[in-house]
């Protein structure tokens, strides 16, 4: 939807401001869908708490991937169907580029001892209720499991993960 919307929005601007420019222009048919797709992919991928360098690299990767994929999609076919393949190519290559940035980000964070998955680290569960109570103190008032313990895995996990597991139901199937 972003690709076709980007093309039709750009077509309105071109017809209004540059009537001499053809709507069949290869540049217009690649840039308009790919640019909007790149922006949408970047906004869906980024997190507020990431540093500026990671966000900049992600934006650059989304734009480059979407433009390359859009060009490949456009050259794959001709006619009006080329607009559809441009959109598909831009979305696929943009996603692939952002996946690559995420993998590089995780590897570099692990190399520096800043494991991004460490915020979700899982510790072994205490073997008994007494060990669990000693681990948490009186915070759970004698309950077998506290708000940080996962029922399914039997290991300590963050509260958000437990809520997600509880919502998912057995074997990850939503009720």
Mean pLDDT: 75
Number of domains: 2
Low-confidence stretches: 118-122, 140-144, 150-157
Overall helicity: 55-70%
* % residues in beta strands: under 5%
* Total beta strand runs: 0
The coarse overall form would be elongated
Report the structural category: mainly alpha
Q: Please summarize the sheet with the most strands.
A: none
Q: What is the succession of H and E elements? A: HHHHHH
Radius of gyration from the alpha-carbon trace, in angstroms: 24 Å
Subunit organisation of the chains: single chain
General description of the model:
The protein has 175 residues and is mostly helical. The chain folds into 2 domains: 2-118, no CATH class; 122-172, no CATH class. It is 63% helix and 0% strand. It is elongated. Mean pLDDT is 75; it is low at 118-122, 140-144 and 150-157.
Topology:
Layout: H1 2-17, H2 26-45, H3 52-76, H4 81-111, H5 129-136, H6 159-168
């Amino acid at each position: 939807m972003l690709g076709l919307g980007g093309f039709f929005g750009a077509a309105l601007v071109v017809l209004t401001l540059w009537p001499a420019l053809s709507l069949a222009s290869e540049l217009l048919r690649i840039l308009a869908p790919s640019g909007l797709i790149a922006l949408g992919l970047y906004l869906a991928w980024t997190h507020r708490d990431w540093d500026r360098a990671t966000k900049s690299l992600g934006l650059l990767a989304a734009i480059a991937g979407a433009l390359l994929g859009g060009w490949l999609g456009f050259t794959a076919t001709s006619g009006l169907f080329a607009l559809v393949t441009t959109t598909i190519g831009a979305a696929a290559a943009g996603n692939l580029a952002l996946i690559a940035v995420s993998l590089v980000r995780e590897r570099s964070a692990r190399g520096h001892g800043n494991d991004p998955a460490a915020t979700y680290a899982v510790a072994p569960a205490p073997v008994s209720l007494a060990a669990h109570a000693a681990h948490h103190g009186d915070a759970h008032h004698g309950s077998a499991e506290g708000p940080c313990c996962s029922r399914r895995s039997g290991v300590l996990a963050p509260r958000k993960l437990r809520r997600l597991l509880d919502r998912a139901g057995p074997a990850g199937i939503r009720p």
